[in-house]
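Revision sheet: structure tokens.
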Amino acid sequence: LKEVLLKEVEDGKPILGICLGLQILFEESFEGGRCEGLALIKGRVIRLPSEVKVPHIGWNTIKIKKKNPLLREVNDGAYVYFVHSYYATPDNEEVIVATTKYGVEFPSVICDGNIFATQFHPEKSGEVGLKILRNFVAIVKGSI
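Predicted:
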């Protein structure tokens, strides 16, 4: 599966990582001990701060940092649904499209070329999530 995914990325096909799918794009994670990721994006995945309840489960807002077709027609401050205990820390902050605050400000949407990812679950995020999934389909079709 790893080789197939890496080939798709290399061929320029859009991919969408959701939750753990975002985290596995990075070089390494410390969930359950150190483990290697796909290293498609430089950086690592670390645990949310101990002063907040973990896992982070429920609705929270996204702060849009820059325009991206994945978030077309999604408003700044939109509520989306999260279930996670770890978050990504990309080496290059230019890949960060939106952030969320929960004990720390973390990337909730990233994009690096044809790689798109959300820390939240668009499939559980109602109308906002449906917009994001439709936007990704439009990206794949080349219509946006």
